[in-house]
Amino acid sequence: MGKFIVKKASTGYMFNLLAGNGEIIATSEIYTSEAACLNGVESVSVNAPIANFEDQTDDPVKTAVNPKFEMYKDKAGEFRFRLKAKNGEIIAVSEGYKAKAGCLNGIDSVRKNVVDAKIEKNY
After folding, report:
1. Would 118 disulfide with which of 3, 16, 25, 94, CB 3.0-4.6 Å?
2. Domain residue limits, the chain
3. CATH class of 3-122
4. What is the pTM of this model?
């Protein structure tokens, strides 16, 4: 089972989503308040299981509607994903993956680990 770790950052609050093995599988932006950060956690929990998938490394790209996971290549050539809410806001992002398969596994892991994920406050 996954868990959200909410922590204080220098300019606000953020969260990491951890898989059952303790690996970080998604990270949030910095929120200005704890309440806004907890709303972000809730948004990821609601949107990730039902999110569509858009592979921006495909040519042509088949556009998906929000909520969605977008998989793309970064400037370093690594695969990454971002989760967008229904309103188009980015609510979680991944680390870089060398292989496309790793990125796809990361998306699957987020979908599975948000279900019944506990919230831990680390501050």
Report:
1. 3
2. 3-122
3. mainly beta
4. 0.95
